[in-house]
Write a structure and sequence with these properties.
The chain is mostly beta strands and 927 residues long. It is 7% helix and 20% strand. The strands form ten sheets. Strands 4, 5, 6, 7 and 8 form a five-stranded antiparallel β-sheet that branches. Strands 15, 16, 17, 18 and 19 form a five-stranded antiparallel β-sheet that branches. β12 and β13 form a beta hairpin. The radius of gyration is 26 Å and the shape is globular. This is PilC beta-propeller domain-containing protein. Keywords: Signal. It comes from Solimonas fluminis.
């Protein structure tokens, strides 16, 4: 028998308060009219417009009928609404779900044309950073707010009315997967610039119609509804062309003009192909001092692009962003879709591929590159015409083969010699990010560096004081002034290669020279994690100072994956430990355009080292002088770059960082939660039976000698102080406290103990997943009794009817208080196709992190706990969800797979990056 701790009693009180406030305790399974309001746990009063997290979610069932057991009647995808108002009694609870419409013959895959639109979409990305508010001239109701989301495998696109975030109803089907003519694999979404209140929606498709090579950027009217007839989607007839007619050895021969035919199924869709003969090397050697000159890196070895050397031909757009002034749209190339669906066999072929790097193995070119290494920039038109979807982009006329492309630029491959070619540094540009502010002024609050270009001095006590005292704002300088520093740079990350890259000026035309002797934007490697480490979908803070970088790990230790563990800790301890990093990118942005030999970015790969595996010094001890003696000094002690002054600095982490809390060299440990394999945390007030019960046997947990550990041994190994759980429950109020002892993501232990934030859950390790999607909270949160937090008002200035550019943070100083972000631990499974799948899943949890806006110190929000398990983070796939009755439309349909999310609240207008709509609705969220 166990005694309830204070935390358990608080949880019970939370539930009781919520039930009392709603006026009714509903019986299990009873229908709800809408989600409950946020009730202040201190006062019992309603919190007006409490913030929520909208989570775009797939059904957890893997295999389709008739192969498996996923019935079309019970495997629905959905949008979940989570209460994320920190003072709410329901903080961390799923409070509502909204379903999808069922239309037949909508999906291309899985199962041919038999799938319905509400199942097996594998929900992927959505309008996360922004939302869409109708101006009334787009076929939607004026003033109402919407978000859009896509199915990565179905090609379907959906629209939800989110005007009332606690009463979201069934979505509309905007595009059926059978209606694009050239495209597949739905990815990023963005609202396009235009005067007035109405705007187009643009999103990326990563591949061609049949999930092969050559993706598109696709434009639709936000009010489009997918044409149907008698409940069936009206398809368009796909363009049928041999593979090499459009890409590969013959170059971009055809299919590069936008496709906007008015066929019944296709009307209202424009697909802009990204393929172009750009004469840009796919592995540029002049953007790094340590280029990989091997013959196998000069030309593509994969079947889809066999022998290709021009990055322009390999169009696989995934990540996407708009520049702060709305003039340019940029996309990053990730992978050929068909190869992703079969990626799970890579491990089995890795030994063969290592010995046969110049041989294309198998039908999908597994040994070669099926991944992208380039970024494309498009020019926006800034116009809106209802019904005309070849509208938002204009011709740049830089390349004769595709007039819409302004530039193609590839990121460099570095000194690492990987046995598997797609583990090379530049392979698979998953994420893309652009600065949100137009500039900063030298010495501006938040940007004062005390003369230290690395910004280490800025986060010391003296540096924080100097920034607090600064009276300089972004309005104190203008273009042309010596102290005006433009933010024209961009970030991208290679998920397969494991490197974060930076370009200081994304606006350069593809035919203009850059500071490193090439043409178009140049890219420099700024942080190398290592091979196949899953450097995934990052987010940039609205003030441009910090980048939140998830590292999903992908590789697993030998006790779990003997065949694929060779690189798990190859270059340094905890190399593939699942973690989320807070990266101080001010040293990079402070260089401005960095467009001369004297000012260009110096940060580069870690130098080569022929005495070490893979010819790299990655992970060896850093040699530069340590200018910072503050709380996060344990970071930046190993080489992840060449240690130039303009290299970014790590200021905080959630998860087991490579150096641990007490110095470098600590081994990776598994999370202490062994009861729910899908949850990576042990809540401080919980008692997990099979950790505490010596009779519980977990067959796949072993010690270093390979001995199987039972529950008793696991408890001893992790040094769990059961009797002390109530004492450790002292983290109170609205979550975490930022101080010198709680800044490393491991505030209370060495990685396996309660409260550590250890993300190495068994399910993450088994499924080769981890943190993948991150999102900065632009909505803000309710103030706590201690005064922490508060709504961040980031209104744009209105210029000529457009809200651009957003030059400064209004409502509170640029560098004060804390900010928070969400991260989700799920990539893409795709086993329901059916097929081998991606080989990277995750434990399907949603977590919140917080960081100090002055120093970047970061911790897991341990007060954001699962309503069923009591553990930090919200687990959509635990056993407890199997029979749980989800509120709203979903009901009792089992576990789920969350991929993307959006912070929202009623009345808040989210701009992205700060422009649209021109006339915000209650921009400060105060009503």
């Amino acid at each position: 028998m166990y005694e309830f701790s204070k935390g358990v009693l608080r949880s019970l009180r939370r539930v009781a308060l919520a039930a009392t406030a709603s006026g009714v305790i509903a019986a299990a399974g009873a229908a709800q009219a809408s989600a409950p309001a946020a009730i202040n746990k201190y006062t019992g009063e309603i919190i007006p417009n409490g913030s929520v997290l909208l989570v775009w979610t797939g059904d957890g069932c893997a295999l389709p009928v008739p192969v498996g057991t996923c019935s079309p009647d019970s495997a629905q995808d959905f949008l979940a609404v989570v209460d994320v108002e920190p003072n709410s009694t329901r903080y961390g609870d799923v409070i509502w779900t909204a379903e999808l419409p069922r239309v037949t013959l909508s999906n291309i895959l899985p199962g041919g044309l038999i799938a319905n639109s509400d199942a097996h979409n594998d929900p992927h990305h959505m309008l996360s950073y922004t939302s869409y508010i109708s101006g009334g001239g787009d076929g939607l109701q004026k003033g109402r707010k919407y978000t859009f989301g896509g199915g990565v495998i179905s090609k379907n696109v959906f629209r939800y009315d989110i005007t009332s975030v606690r009463n979201i109803q069934k979505a509309d089907l905007v595009v059926c997967g059978t209606q694009p003519k050239r495209s597949s694999l739905t990815d990023d979404f963005i609202v396009m610039p235009a005067p007035g209140g109405d705007h187009k929606i643009i999103y990326t498709y990563m591949g061609s119609y049949g999930y092969g090579a050559m993706g598109t950027v696709t434009e639709i009217d936000p009010g489009r509804n997918a044409p149907t007839l008698a409940g069936l989607c009206t398809p368009s007839v796909p363009a049928v062309a041999p593979l090499l007619e459009t890409v590969g050895l013959l170059g971009c021969v055809g299919g590069t003009a936008p496709e906007d035919s008015a066929e019944p199924g296709h009307k209202g869709i424009t697909e802009y192909p990204g393929c172009v003969s750009a004469n840009q090397p796919r592995n540029p050697t002049n953007y790094t001092s340590y280029p990989d000159q091997r013959e196998s890196r000069k030309r593509n070895q994969g079947v889809f692009f066999l022998g290709n050397a021009d990055a322009g031909h390999e169009s696989q757009p995934h990540g996407m962003g708009l520049t702060y002034d709305g003039k340019y749209l940029a996309t990053s190339d990730y992978a050929v879709p068909a190869s992703i669906g079969a990626a799970a066999i890579n491990g089995a072929l890795s030994v063969f591929c290592a010995k046969n790097q110049n041989i294309n193995a198998g039908p999908l070119g597994i040994c070669g590159s099926t991944y992208g290494a380039s970024v494309r920039v498009w020019e926006t038109s800034g116009v809106y015409n209802l019904g005309k979807t070849r509208d938002s982009l204009k011709e740049a006329n830089v390349y004769s083969g595709n007039s819409y492309i302004r530039s193609v630029s590839a990121v460099p491959d570095g000194p690492r010699h990987e046995e598997v070619l797609f583990h090379e540094e530049n392979e698979g540009l998953m994420a893309f990010g652009l600065a949100h502010q137009s500039h900063h002024c030298s010495g501006q609050k938040g940007w004062e560096n005390l003369g230290d270009p690395s910004y280490d001095a800025a986060v010391t006590k003296a540096g924080v004081a100097a920034n607090d005292a600064s009276k300089v704002s972004s309005s104190d300088c203008k273009p042309g002034d010596a102290d005006y520093v433009p933010h024209d740079g961009a970030f991208t990350a290679s998920m397969c290669g494991g490197v974060l890259y930076y370009s200081p000026d994304i606006t350069i035309r593809g035919d203009q020279p850059n500071a490193y002797g090439g043409t178009g934007p140049y890219w420099r490697p700024v942080y190398d994690v290592g091979p196949c480490s899953g450097v995934s979908y990052f987010t940039l803070s609205d003030d441009d100072r910090f980048l939140i970088q998830p590292v999903s790990g992908i590789q697993s230790p030998p006790s779990i994956d003997p065949s694929g563990s060779a690189v798990f800790d190859r270059d340094y301890p905890r190399q593939h430990s699942r973690r989320v990093l807070t990266v101080d990118v001010r040293p990079l942005l402070a260089k401005g355009k960095a467009d001369t030999a004297e000012t260009r970015i110096q940060c580069d790969f870690p130098p080569p080292d022929a005495t070490r595996p893979a010819n790299t010094s990655l992970g060896t001890a850093a040699t530069r002088s340590n200018r910072f003696a503050g709380a996060s000094g344990k970071f930046n002690v190993l080489k992840h770059n060449n240690e130039a002054d303009d290299c970014p600095r790590i200021r905080g982490a959630i998860g087991q960082f490579e150096t641990g809390p007490h110095g470098k060299g600590l081994p990776t440990t598994v999370s202490s939660n062994t009861d729910q394999v899908g949850t990576g945390y042990l809540r401080l007030v919980s008692v997990l039976d099979n950790v505490l019960n010596p009779g519980t046997l977990l067959n796949n947990i072993t010690d270093a000698a390979g001995n199987v550990l039972d529950g008793s041994a696991i408890r001893n190994l992790l040094e769990l102080n059961v009797d002390g759980l109530g004492v450790l429950d002292g983290l109170d109020v609205a979550g975490i406290i930022l101080n010198g002892q709680q800044t490393g993501g491991e505030p209370s232990g060495d990685g396996g103990t309660p409260g550590s934030g250890n993300l190495n859950s068994l399910q993450n390790l088994y499924t080769h997943g981890g943190p993948h999607f991150t999102l900065y909270d632009r909505v803000g949160h309710q103030r706590t009794p201690s005064g922490e937090g508060g709504y961040l008002d980031l209104r744009p200035k209105v210029v000529n009817g457009l809200g651009l550019p957003r030059d400064q943070v209004e409502g509170q100083p640029e560098a004060s208080g804390s900010a928070r972000f969400a991260f989700i631990q799920y990539f893409v499974e795709l086993q329901h196709v059916p097929g081998p799948g991606t080989g990277s899943d995750g434990d399907r949890t949603i977590c919140l992190g917080k960081f100090d806006r002055k120093t970047g110190a970061t911790v897991l929000d341990t007060s954001f706990t699962d309503e069923l398990l009591g553990t930090p983070c919200l687990d959509f796939d635990s056993k407890a969800r199997d029979g749980w009755n989800w509120p709203g439309a979903r009901g009792a349909k089992g576990g789920a797979k969350p991929h993307a999310a959006a912070f929202e609240r009623d009345g808040a207008a989210l701009f992205g990056p700060g422009y649209y709509p021109a006339k915000p609705i209650d921009a400060d969220g105060s009503q």
